[in-house]
Specification:
about 190 residues, mainly alpha, Alpha-Beta Plaits, two-stranded antiparallel sheet, 2 strands, about 5% strand, globular
Length: about 190
């Protein structure tokens, strides 16, 4: 997938989300698949995904003079019930580029244009991504305090779920190990 291909996919996702008023909470475009956490709107999930993936495949195939599927398989969907599962899905999806080393650290992830993580933190602005609903689940609704609150939850998730060492988190985030330990101490009550 080229840079043009990735930009086209993100443009199509945003345009379709706005057109159909489908809330997109989290997303990450990977090399051979995409993760999207959305709330099925009036169009319905099947039609939304068909329009997104078929439109993208036609465009991609014309650009590359080929035919057939672009992504590995038909999309899979699961129902997201509950606030804890929602926040865990947001973390899982947005950390995916870091886990598979499309980006080298959290700082790079914050600026990675093919994932919704940066938008949640405030850059870049994507009007079609529903940041307010996500931020409400992470304990804030305004841009003030957005970065520390979300970062804190991500640091906790990295340690608890992925076994990332405190020194590695400190290196990735660009803070001292004592800073990471302070965040972890604060999050024990979250």
């Amino acid at each position: 997938m080229t840079e043009t291909d990735r930009k086209d996919f993100v443009r199509r996702l945003g345009a379709l989300a706005e057109e159909t008023q489908t809330p997109i909470y989290a997303w990450a475009l990977m090399s051979n698949h995409v993760h999207i956490l959305l709330c099925s709107g009036a169009l319905g999930l099947a039609k939304f995904m068909r329009r997104l993936l078929t439109g993208y495949a036609v465009s991609y195939n014309l650009r590359h003079r080929r035919h057939g599927h672009v992504f590995q398989n038909r999309y899979k969907s699961i129902v997201c019930d509950g606030d804890n599962y929602f926040t865990e899905l947001v973390r899982y999806i947005h950390l995916n580029p870091l886990r598979v080393e499309l980006v080298k650290d959290l700082k790079e992830l914050e600026n990675y244009p093919y994932c919704g993580h940066g938008t949640i933190l405030g850059t870049p602005a994507r009007q079609w991504q529903d940041c307010e609903s996500v931020l409400a689940q992470f304990g804030t609704r305004t841009s003030e305090g957005r970065l520390p609150t979300v970062r804190t939850k991500i640091v906790r998730s990295l340690v608890e779920n992925y076994g990332v060492a405190v020194a590695e988190i400190a290196r990735q985030v660009g803070i001292s190990t004592s800073g990471v330990l302070k965040i972890l101490t604060r999050t024990l009550s979250i």
